[in-house]
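Form 7-S
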Amino acid sequence: MAASAATPDIIPVDEIKPGMQGYGLTVFAGSRVDTFSVRVLGVQQNARVQGSLVLVEVAGHGLELSSIAQGMSGSPVYLDGRFAGALAFGWEGALAPIGGVTPAGEMLALPQAPVTAQPRHAGGWDAGRLLSDAGREGARGLAAVFDGEGTTVAAPVVAGAAGAWPDVLDLGAELLAPLAAGGDVAAPSWLCRPASAAALAQGCSAPAPAVAPTLVPGAACAVSLVSGDADLGAIGTVSWVDGDRVLIFGHPLMQRGPVDLPLAAADIVTILPSRRISFKIGSPGPVVGAVHHDLRAGVAGRLGASAPVVPVDVRLTGAAPRSYHFDVADDAQLTPMLVFWSFYNALLAGSDDASRQSVTWRMETTWRLGGAAPRQLVQQGVVSGPGGAAALGADLMTPLALLMDNPFGPAHLDKVAISATIVPGRGEAAITALGASRRVEAGATRLPVTIELRDGEGRAHTLPVDVPLPSALPAGAYRVVAASAAEFFAFEAQRAPDRLQPERLADLWELLESERSPSTLVLTVFAADRPVMVGGRELAAAPGSVSRVVATGRQPADQALARPVARIAVPTGWALGGHAVRTLEVAPAVPAAGAGRRP
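Output:
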């Protein structure tokens, strides 16, 4: 990709004096680069460690009204015909169009070549994020049952008032806010093209132009995070082009250091003046390169380079089936959020009711763990009622984040496929009772159970289930418990805490494969005895002699809350809440008449 024939000279900071006048380059509308006037107010020496800030006042194209706008970040400034730096900072509520320029020398010191980003573990990694709030709450009540303090039937949890879904752009800004640079700066302006009927007509990403546009100083550009049937990215301005080297923004995007993100051209619709801080409204263009460093003095990249993306396919079924395709940036910290944003955007295109509907979803992800063959991980569930769709964020993002940013070994996400069915009506149901015989004889292999449910509309339902019993189940007292898989998963985290402390990538994968959907009904039979725990690990399969030795040691051993002896999982169409408990006695087998007597 060709650049301008010659790059301008550089003016050092120590030659910049108050009163000097020059010009800057940026796009105010469309893709045409325009000039605006610049007057130097002075240089703020050592405004930051190893850095100064050139303060300027700008004018022209309505900047007297709008002041520095988000999206102008990176606009090159020239004094005496030499490159002085990039307009990069502004201040909220400013009554004059005054901005800060990152000096040219600092920007040109940015790394010139990409480096292989080292795997980085973000810290604070916690598999406990897999526990939902509803699951935690239910598990506390279930644990109280085994401590002898709880009731046998939990209170129904079907309630809620109408709510609204947040705008997709607001959602994107909210998700990315913790990673974005803060402060009173003219940061990149987020751009968004939601999924729509127009995208449906294409059925895929917009085709690339026959001749890719060339970025020049002052041109609008974007770090593209999502493309395809919806777009999300950050608009800024090109500061410097030398061959295939390109510098943008004049300040960090997220100060992530080495990155590998797509760089795209952009078109500007207009600048929206604001009393708080003005911003450019723009549209994304084709990908023209990649950015490889995100540092304090700006973002550096290469034209013609390519950055990896993860394909995300979303299929909506129901009254109006639709399919969407997205490509999201491949980044351990960003990808989980971007996958959810894409899915959420597609949901908004296929639904208009935030309260009286339910969404049944399934996410299939394909991974390469180390050098092993691709493996597929499946997550699924049901959400319903106000805020249900937004609450899906944790369900979709957490497994992706735990694998992509795990401390055990490399896990590469190849692709994501999400399917969802949206149906009218509330999809919650509370478990209100469990009906079963209180006594069976030893040797019985099944326990017929009837689960009573009450849905979000107040209608009663019954669900018959046969719970398989081990044929060698000893005589004694047991408890039969019915709850959602989400509640049981959280209960297991209390019963056997080592489950949420994986020590290898294989352990984490096994944990993620555990059934924890709120739509899956689980019935479990628990024995009365409580296994010994050592170091947070349950000695469930240890011989009795080992358990007795541990139990009689110098320090009392912990005990698990309960010991499961039988379990069955049954998919349902509801988001389940509550639990029910029933006691069960396994009686000794009655010997046949005359047995044991000699003739």
